[in-house]
Prior knowledge:
The structure holds 2 protein chains of 2 kinds.
Chain A: H1 5-9, H2 17-31, H3 41-55, H4 58-67, H5 78-84, H6 106-111, E1 128-134, H7 136-141, E2 143-149, E3 152-158, E4 167-170, E5 186-192, E6 198-201, E7 204-211, H8 213-218, E8 220-226, E9 229-235, E10 244-247, E11 262-268, H9 276-288
Parallel strand pairs in A: 1-5, 7-11
Antiparallel strand pairs in A: 2-3, 4-5, 6-7, 8-9, 10-11
Helix pairs in contact in A: 2-3
Chain B: E1 10-11, H1 12-19, H2 23-31, E2 38-39, E3 45-47, H3 51-65, H4 69-92
Antiparallel strand pairs in B: 1-3, 2-3
Amino acid sequence: MARDFxxxxxxxxxxxxxxxxxxxxxxxxxxxxDVNRDPGAEDRFKEVSEAYEVLSDPExxxxxxxxxxxxxxxxxxxxxxxxxxxGGRTVYTSGPGSGGFEDFDxxxxxxxxFRRGGRSGPIPGADQEAVLTLSxxxxxxxxxxxxxISDRELDVTIPPGVVDGxxxxxxxxxxxGSGGGTAGDLFLVVRIAPHPRYRLEGRDIIVDLPVTPxxxxxxxxxxxxxxxxxxxxxxxxxxxxxxxxxxxxxxMPNPRGTPGDLYAVVKIMVPKRLGKRxxxxxxxxxxxxxxxxxxx
Amino acid sequence: xxxxxxxxxxSTNRVSAHTGLHPELVRRFAALGLIECAADETGxxxxxxxxxxxxxxxxxxxxxxxxxxxxxGLVLDLLDRIRVLEAQARGSDRRWT
Lengths: 296, 97
C-alpha cells in the first residue's frame, strides 16, 4: 500500500489527467475482485483506486507531488504556518500535537471504495481462489500445511484423499467486506503435481510394476511402493506386460465413501547386459520354446 | 448429518434484511434481470439463497467500477459464462498426473 501513486498506476509523474484516468480504468477492470479471483487482486485494486482518488483531484495531487506519502498529515495551512515561523524547521510530520490528520482512518477510506455508489449498507467481500499444488503423497495423507497467500499466513487442514480440481473452502478468508459486511471465502483449488511413479485416474492410482521375465512367467510376490507404504503384490504366472493387477482400496482415501483402487501394471524388464550364463540360458530358452507372441 | 438450515427460497423482505437494500430496490434488481426470482400465485416474489451473494457482487461491481445497472447485468452474464467455460476447460483438461 506504501507504493508511490504514480508507480501504482504505471504513469509518469508528468502524466495528464486523461492518461491517469485511462491507466486507472484499465487496472480497475483488471483487478476488480469480482473479475479477478486471485487473492492479491483486491489489494492491488484498492491500491490503484486510492492512487486514482488522489491523483484525479488536482488539489490532492498537488499536495501529493509536494509532500509525498505524508501528504495527508501536512496541515492545509502549511504555507501560512511556515511563513509565520519564518522558514523554521517543519515540525508537523507526525507529532502528537499536530492534530487534524491524526485521527485519519485509513481502513475507512479503503472500505469506501466499494461504497462510492452512494448506498452505505454493509457489502460482503468477494470470494477468492488460489491454486494449491500438492504431491500425490501429500494428497494421499492430507494434514496441516502452512500457506502464504498474498502476504497472509494460513494454517490449512488438508483432508486425506483430495483429488485434482477439488476445492477446499476457507470460510471468511477471502476478500474483506466493507461497511461491516462479512468477508468472502477463499477457495483453494487443488492441483496434483505430476509424479514420476504414480498416475491418477480419479481416486485410482496406477503404478508400473517392473518384473523380471521369469517372475512374469512363473509368478511371484513382489514388493511395491504405494503412497500409503510398501505392499506386496502377487504376480500371477503368465503375466504379460500391461496386465493390471488390482489392489482394492489401496488408491486414494475417500472421506465420504469407498477409497480408490491401486493398479500395478506389469512391466517386464530385461537386463541391459547379459552375463555369460544368462545368455546361455536365454539362448536355450529361445531354442526350446515355441511361444510366438505375434502368432495368430 | 447436519439439518438444512438455509431456506430454499427467500422473500423480498428477507433479501432486503440480509443485504441492507430497500425492498423496492430488490424488486428493481429483479425487474432489471440482475437477480433470479420466481413469482407465486399471489404475485409475491421469491429468491434463491445465492441472491444475497449475487447482490453483494452487484454492489461491488457498481461501486468499484462505476458501472450502471445495465452494464452490471452484462458483466454478471459474462462472468457466469466464463465460469461455465472454465469448468468445461478443466473437465477436458483432465489428464493423468
